[in-house]
Amino acid sequence: MENPQHPGWYLFDYGMVISTAPEPEDWEALEESAGLPLRNPDSSYWAHRLDYDEGKIDSQQYWSLVLGREVGIGRASELDSLDALQWSHLNLDTLDVLELLYSRGARLAVLSNMPATMAEEFAGAPWTKYFTELFFSSGIGLTKPEPGVFKHVLEALGTDPADVIFIDDKHENVHSARALGIKAIHHAPGTDLQRELGL
């Protein structure tokens, strides 16, 4: 049965909302494979991430830029698998909320900045069963907080902004969504999401 208090959509970010932050050992495994320190915000991993998330470059191009040398398909695939693994740890509290909403017949969707290779890695993962729609930046060609991302989702869902509750961990994404009339919640890891949503 659908939740009568919110007949529209719940739109969830993935990283740091559905998933938790990578563990230190995850970064260590990726860094060992790459032969470079990658976890710092000014690293080559992040410097080229926007283009990768938007689908402007493919896996080989991205990892070639990250490593500073050309890599083959196999090497890129290995790094992609390690990268997906470190972002695969799920937030159990969020899963409880998803289970509750799902049991009530709520309409659930995901909107995440994510490269196509990672989206493919997660295809069919158990957490995807809760969602009717999955939107990834690499398939849209834009990343949050660009307004066009949210406009794309609203059009695809066929719904008004006021009928969407968006949950994201980044202030800039929440601000952009609110500017379009979407009910957006800034979710800080460790806070009670069920209480934030008034469930």
What low-confidence regions span 5 or more consecutive residues with pLDDT below 50? none
The number of helical segments is 11
Helix content: 40-55%
Quote the distance from N terminus to C terminus: 15 Å
Helix and strand composition category:
alpha/beta
The CATH architecture assignment of the largest domain turns out to be 3-Layer(aba) Sandwich
Q: Remind me, CATH topology of the largest domain?
A: Rossmann fold
Strand order of the largest sheet: 3-2-1-4-5
Number of discrete domains: 2
Q: Work out the number of β strands.
A: 5
Strand content: 5-15%
Provide the CATH top-level class of the largest domain.
Alpha Beta
Average predicted confidence as pLDDT: 95
- How do the SSEs run, as a string of H and E? EHHHHHHEHEHHEHEH
Radius of gyration: 17 Å
Principal-axis shape: globular
Q: Say which CATH homologous superfamily of the largest domain is assigned.
A: HAD superfamily/HAD-like
Major sheet details:
5 strands, parallel
